[in-house]
Amino acid sequence: MEPLIHIDNLNKSFGEQHVLNGFHLDLFEGENLVIVGKSGSGKSVLLKCIVRLLEADSGVLEVLGKSIPELNQYEMDRLRTEVGFLFQGSALYDSMTVRENLEFPLRRHPEKMAGQDVESLIVSTLESVGLAHTIGLMPEELSGGMQRRIALARTLILRPRIILYDEPTSGLDPITAKEIIELMLKAQREYQTSALIITHDMDCARVIANRMIILIDGRNYAEGSYEALSALPDPRVQAFFK
Amino acid sequence: MPTTYFQRSGLRRYLNETGEVWLFAQRFFREAVRRPFEWRELLNQCFIVGNQSLFLVGMTGLIMGLVLTLQTRPTMEDFGAEAYMPAMVGVSIIREIGPVIVALICAGKIGSSIGAELGSMKVTEQIAAMEVSGTNPFKYLVVTRILATTLMVPLLVIFGDAVALFGSYLVEHMKGDVSFQLFFNKVFRQLSFSDLVPATIKTFFFGFAIGLIGCYKGYHSRKGTAGVGRAANTAVVVASMLLFVLDFIAVLVADIFFDL
Ligand SMILES: Nc1ncnc2c1ncn2[C@@H]1O[C@H](COP(=O)(O)OP(=O)(O)O)[C@@H](O)[C@H]1O
Ligand SMILES: [Mg+2]
Fold it and tell me: pLDDT band at B1, cuts 50/70/90?
């Protein structure tokens, strides 16, 4: 089976600081691949390279069969609608209402409406994250957990095939975090998405991961299922499970 | 390798940044003509720019007219030339004082708010979020704002000029018993094509500079809340300085073309 995302020997440095050193991964259809790593280990940098918010220095970087560094701006924008991105801090547009937040990408990609009208798409997407009643509110009127859900709705409204989650549960209390994880699983069922999830929340990883990669020193340090990794005697791996 | 003075000094950074602003301006022109246009956001920004500074420009304009007239009048009286007051005040307000003062007010008010707004959007990754959803934040945020300031600052200058002239009229009316009609007749009789045209053209450049610098500083804001503050602050400082440079250039150019 062709992978949806294929990364091989990826390198990225900022000056003298080598953040990614030959990282590789394959994300397959329907899979939830979790990447864990310490804070500052380059997890966000990896996701940003995938959507070309940052340019990788070298390596193979293919998404849905297309080589990211070779795409022109138009092709890249087209591809970006297939790849949802959930930011660490939700990144809702704070001068727009919830409705306008969802409308913003949709209006600019009318081909993504699939014959439905804007209003009903917004309402049905908000319903699927359980927040239909917030449609007229501003982001600052929402709690952190609700903001995260709206950010997910804003991503889902374009019906992406892949979603990249950057620490989806960070900064949330354990109960809200659990709700977000439930919602991610629900989104996967309803929207048939595959996901690359970055986290250092092991509860999140245990529930959601089909497969995990441990990122240390910019490389794949260890790889396997949650159970397999938690049974590894290596102290650097065990540090994550404590 | 020993560092040269050039490398250590701020000069290098300054030249670098000038180059980047230039590239930013080029990108503005490229994207401004490319469809689709963000009409709604452009109108929205025009409204915000106008609405934000209308009161401030009005107040400053009024005081400017009052003070200028009050302070010049005694000297003109000494020469027995108080009949020339409207003509003199009119020329100085419309040619120089009005455009510069109003543009400075706008740099402070609009430049800083654009810098802060885009800066906070940058550090909270809202700009990145627009990019990864396959939309064009430069077009939505930058093109609309620069166009809005370019269009609205000239209108604000006209408004400021009008209020300032009215302030001047109030003083003339009280001190010299000059009628409204007589005052404005005298003002406009003195004004020529070569006063109005360069003065108006330069206000478009002023507006463009305010929007450009505000957007550039915000769009390239550094991480953290301190970065946002710096973006707003340097937007005002740099835009204000640039206004004086542009004004100087405008005067030189007008001097050549209109042979003043
Ligand atoms: N745009 C950038 N410029 C310079 N350094 C960066 C940039 N983005 C990230 N870094 C550096 O790369 C390292 C990894 O960052 P990041 O991927 O955000 O870590 P995390 O794994 O916590 O998400 C950090 O040390 C950070 O300082
Ligand atoms: Mg991160």
Answer: very low
**Segment holding A117, helix H or strand E:** none
Which is more confident, B1 or A17? Answer: A17
Structure tokens at A157: 């409204």
Q: Tell me how far apart the alpha carbons of residues A67 and B18 are, in angstroms, rounded to a whole number.
A: 34
pLDDT for B110: 97
Amino acid, res. B238: V
- Reported as a single tens digit per residue, the pLDDT across B105-123 is 999 999 999 999 999 999 9
Chain B touched by A109 (CB under 8 Å): yes
Query: pLDDT tens across A53-94, in order?
Result: 999 999 999 999 999 999 999 999 999 999 999 999 999 999
Residue-wise burial string across B3-39, b where 16 or more C-beta atoms lie within 10 A, e elsewhere: eeeeeeeeeeeeeebeeebeebbeebeeeeeeeeebe
Cβ contacts of B133 on chain A, cutoff 8 Å:
80-81, 85, 104-105, 108, 154-155, 158
Task: Name, in order, each residue with C-beta under 8 angstroms of A149's C-beta and a sequence gap of 6 or more.
Answer: A129, A130, A131, A180, A183
Distances (CA, A) of B227 to A80, B28, B49, B66, B245: 28, 23, 23, 40, 26
Average pLDDT over every residue of B230-234: 93
Write the pLDDT tens digit of every residue in B181-200: 999 999 999 888 888 899 99
Nearest to A108 among B120, B126, B135 (CB): B135
Residues spanned by the domain of B214: 39-257
* Token pair belonging to B220: 């390239």
Average pLDDT rounded to a whole number, residues A154-163 = 96
CB of A37 closer than 6 angstroms to any ligand 1 atom:
yes
Cβ contacts of B43 within 8 Å, gap of 6 or more: none
In a domain, B31, yes or no: no
| Domains of chain B: total | 1
B240 CA from centroid of ligand 1 (Å): 35
Is B13 part of a structural domain of the chain? no
What does the angle CA B101 – CA B45 – CA A81 come to, to the nearest 5 degrees? Answer: 140
Give a yes or no: residue B228 inside a domain. yes
Is residue A81 exposed (0-12), middle (13-18) or buried (19+ Cβ within 10 Å)? Answer: buried
Q: Looking at CA atoms only, how far is residue B136 from chain A in angstroms?
A: 9
The pLDDT of residue B13: 83
- A10 three-state secondary structure: strand
CB B212 within 8 A of CB B24: yes
Written as one letter, the residue type at B231 is A
Residue B156 has pLDDT above 80, yes or no: yes
